[in-house]
Each structure stands twice: as C-alpha cells, then as structure tokens.
C-alpha cells in the first residue's frame, strides 16, 4: 500500500482537515490546525506531503520521526500541528486496513465511557448560574469556563472578586458531586495567580487551567505550592520534552492537543510520561470531529485519563458545528455527560467528504481577537 494523494480543506468555524488517500482505496482523515494560523499549517502539510506521497502508510512511527526531525529545524506549533494531523490520518488508515479501532492497536480499551465537559460562557454570576444549570440539565457532570476576561497585570480587588464570584456561583449550582474547571487562559499574571489560587481553593475547582502563560513556566513550582488547587496546562506545548518541566513542578493535569502536539503518537507518549509523575491527561480539544475522535481513541486506552474537552456548543463555533462534518453523529452522542466506546474501525467516524469539500469552497480566515487594556496597551486574550 502506498500513499497516493494528500489534500487539505479549510472548514469553518476555524478548522482544517487533511485527507490521505492510498492506492488501496483506504482513506484516512486528520485535523492539522493551529486556531488562527491555519494557512501556515496548510503550507507545512504540503511540504510534508512531498515526503509522504509514495510512502507506505503503515510505517507511522518512522514517518513521525522523519516529519518531526528530518528537516533539521524542528518544533513549534506550525510543524507539530502539521505532523499531528497527518499522524491522525495514518492511524485512521491503519485501523481501517485491519478493521479495528485505533484504541485496539494501542493496547485495547481500559474504559468504556469517556467523561467530557461542556463549556459555559457568561460574564456575570447570573449568566454563569443559568449556563451551568443548562449543562447539568443536558446531562453533563462537569463544565469549564474562563476565570476572567482581560485582567490588569496587578488586578484590582474588584477584578479579583469577580473571579471568586464566578467560582462560588459555579460551586453553588453544581453542588459537591459535580466539577468545574476554571481557565485562566494565560490572561493572569504570575502575581495575580498567586493572589487568586489560595482564595479559589475553598470552591474546589477540578483544576485551574493555564494559570500563567507558557512564557512564565518558571513560576509553576511556586504556584503549585501556593494552594491546594490542581493546576492544568499544555494546549500551547508541542512535544513531550516541553511537558517535562511542568511535570517536575507538580502540575496535576496535562492538556496536550492531539492536533498541536504531534498527534496520537506523541500524545500517547506524553500520557505515559505523565503517568510516571502521577499526573492525569485531559486533552485540549475545542476543535472539530476528527480531533475529537482521535482524543477518544486515546481516552479509551489511556489509564491516567481524566476528562475530555469538546467543542459542541462552544462560543467559538459560529456558522458551523462539529456534527456538520460527519455522516453519522452516533459516536458523538452523549450519555449522561460521557461518550461511549465503539468498535468502529480507525478513528471511529465517517467524515462527510461532500460537506468538507463544500466547506473548503467557503473556507475561513478565523483570527483570535486582539485585546487591549483600558489605557490602549496590548492585553492577553
Ligand atoms: Mg484553555
């Protein structure tokens, strides 16, 4: 079997899909994208395709090594995301070739249900109350929300109290049997994080995510020791090596993105690395159906898996939704806040190729907003 053709498709709201075709008629799908930087990833996929077309798709690990290391210059979100999407497609092909789901190729299932959380938006506590209530009524047992909007580097008491009120409201609605994650989104300075974390502890969030920017990773040991709140991060890290320092610091939950950090092959290794530190895996995935399917295959076979992010109904999705690109929504049907294991081959989904080709004719040019503080200076989004 040889890889015969590789195509990419820009799919609204902000995604990109890759289709890898073989001369045996088996087709694999992947999702190589960096949100807001889809076009450079597409160009990187085109360069990697020069190497892959004509190659044996079954040699996933060898291709991963060459794609990741063979260009001399390596790393970073663009290359790692291009490799990630192609890696997903190669696993999809291998599973379909053998007629088994990818999780069977990775050692078989360790669980039958994958707990997922839903996003809630809303800026004031009343909105948080309504949004959390709605997700509980939809059957979810966990939610996640942003801890704050833009925040001044040394926050006012009002800004600090607004974060605490959101957490307090979420805990009131959820009771003690359900969970919420609080995403600081890299918007919070190290000083603000040190002030907030001890005060958040009484509301027992499941985790605080990206408590500081990846640029400020050197303060992670202090932040781990600042409170009992588990810290989570990883959506802006791109290889197992980049997770080593956070693990050493005592970060509790790793959130690599299967479309940014080298795909299924590298996430599996990041999960094993986390297991040696007693840390859990909660893959980042505000993306489309192929990335979520790849996450699920990992979740079914990863012992130290905690919970799965997913984008259905997320505030970013304008004009298109995850279910628009699959023929059969069944693999993404929630059962009491969890997704169920199936024995469908490959990544376990049927991509709606006609819908994907139609979407690419429109494409998208999604960019994240640029925020500014009240004085006009740049603010982290
Ligand atoms: Mg996040």
From TrEMBL:
<dbReference type="InterPro" id="IPR018110">
    <property type="entry name" value="Mandel_Rmase/mucon_lact_enz_CS"/>
</dbReference>
<dbReference type="InterPro" id="IPR013341">
    <property type="entry name" value="Mandelate_racemase_N_dom"/>
</dbReference>
<protein>
    <submittedName>
        <fullName>Galactonate dehydratase</fullName>
    </submittedName>
</protein>
<dbReference type="InterPro" id="IPR029017">
    <property type="entry name" value="Enolase-like_N"/>
</dbReference>
<dbReference type="InterPro" id="IPR036849">
    <property type="entry name" value="Enolase-like_C_sf"/>
</dbReference>
<dbReference type="Pfam" id="PF02746">
    <property type="entry name" value="MR_MLE_N"/>
</dbReference>
<dbReference type="InterPro" id="IPR013342">
    <property type="entry name" value="Mandelate_racemase_C"/>
</dbReference>
<feature type="domain" description="Mandelate racemase/muconate lactonizing enzyme C-terminal">
    <location>
        <begin position="125"/>
        <end position="230"/>
    </location>
</feature>
<keyword id="KW-0460">Magnesium</keyword>
<keyword id="KW-0456">Lyase</keyword>
<dbReference type="Pfam" id="PF13378">
    <property type="entry name" value="MR_MLE_C"/>
</dbReference>
<keyword id="KW-0479">Metal-binding</keyword>
<dbReference type="InterPro" id="IPR029065">
    <property type="entry name" value="Enolase_C-like"/>
</dbReference>
<dbReference type="InterPro" id="IPR034593">
    <property type="entry name" value="DgoD-like"/>
</dbReference>
<dbReference type="InterPro" id="IPR023592">
    <property type="entry name" value="Galactonate_deHydtase"/>
</dbReference>
